[in-house]
């Protein structure tokens, strides 16, 4: 499925529309789990670009900061 989504995101900014939606929230969260299970993701260049863009959103940075409290 990651290959399919990587292909889809090659020429898109977001998953479902040209705006941030709940689908982006969900997929970003699930994609972050790949780090927890040591899944290699280097070949998914479009997804990695997408994830980096999502990480720069202020709301995401705020959520990550709140998560650090519980580590």
What is shown here, in short?
This protein is mostly helical and 71 residues long. The chain contains four helices and no strands. It starts with a helix and ends with a helix.
Could you characterize what this model shows?
The chain contains 4 helices and no strands. The protein has about 70 residues and is mainly alpha-helical. It has helices at about 1-10, 20-35, 45-55, 60-70.
Features:
globular; mainly alpha; 4 helices; 71 residues
What's the structural blueprint in terms of helices and strands?
Layout lengths: L1 H8 L12 H15 L8 H11 L2 H11 L3
Indicate the structural class.
Answer: mainly alpha
How much of the residues is beta strand, in percent? under 5%
**N to C succession of SSEs:** HHHH
Number of strands: 0
Low-confidence stretches: none
**What's the main sheet like?**
none
Q: Overall mean pLDDT score? A: 94
- Note the gap between the termini: 30 Å
**Secondary structure: helix percent:** 55-70%
Using only CA atoms, what is the Rg?
Answer: 12 Å
How many DSSP H or I helices?
4
Shape: globular
Q: Looking at the chains present, what oligomeric state does this protein adopt?
A: single chain
